[in-house]
Amino acid sequence: MAIANQAAMAIEDTQFYQAMIQSERLAAMGQAVANLSHHAKNLLQGIQGGAYLVQDGIKNENVSVIERGWSIVQRNQERVSGLVMDMLSFSKDREPVYQTEDVLSLLREILESVEPQADELGVAIEAVLPEQSILCDFDREGLHRALLNVLLNAVDATSTAEVDCPRVRVACSANETANWVRIEIADNGPGISETELDRIFVPFESTKGARGTGLGLPVSRKVAREHGGDLTAKSEPGQGAVFCFSWPISQRDASE
């Protein structure tokens, strides 16, 4: 009887534990769907608003109104694309496709794509890159998206802060002996509180409100860890923030 009672209690505890896990999963799924739906609704409203301006401009034969409406549509289309790509990157376990390339070439490509937006927002981007190439193993598509996410976050945070000469600094270094390469993205924005710093890598936890999906930084860290490295952050309120990517130069050496 004692053994039977213990077995019954163990089964009951297991069933309760499984039910609790299932309940937590459903709650997390519901929260994720709610966050994504809210963000998608905002993007669709932006597209609809831009489309209305385009239609109004066509009706009144006003080219300037058409151009303004179309620019709104384009911006929100890019945000929809970014949201979908972040969702795919986060939800799918992906084995990096490594190529040995110059990581500085990738960085310059990313900086070139972000500079027009930074100029429009009044944010200066400072690139501190060595003259010599840094050849290392990385997945170009994955790392491009991860670095772009963090750089755009830094530009956005700095542009909305009340600071003199808003700027973002991008630096790259490598140590062949220790087998690592490091990229730092630092800004002089408002900084991140200790409480928020613990949450920025949690999926769907956005500090941007309606402007963020809460996936950009978790996706970027996921990519860094898929490379055998990590993405870390340090910050203090009013002191800006520094995000650091690091991963092995040679994946072959890292696996040995």
What does this structure look like?
With about 260 residues, this protein is an alpha+beta fold. It has 2 domains: about 90 residues; about 160 residues, Heat Shock Protein 90 (2-Layer Sandwich). The protein is about 55% helix and about 15% strand. The protein is built from 7 helices and 7 strands; from the N terminus they run ααβαββαββααββα. The protein has a 5-stranded mixed β-sheet. The protein has a two-stranded antiparallel ribbon with strand order 1-3. The termini are far apart.
Question: Which SSEs are present, and which pair or pack?
Answer:
Layout: H1 2-59, H2 63-91, E1 99-102, H3 103-121, E2 124-128, E3 135-138, H4 140-159, E4 167-175, E5 180-187, H5 194-197, H6 216-226, E6 230-235, E7 241-247, H7 251-255
Parallel strand pairs: 2-4
Antiparallel strand pairs: 1-3, 4-5, 5-7, 6-7
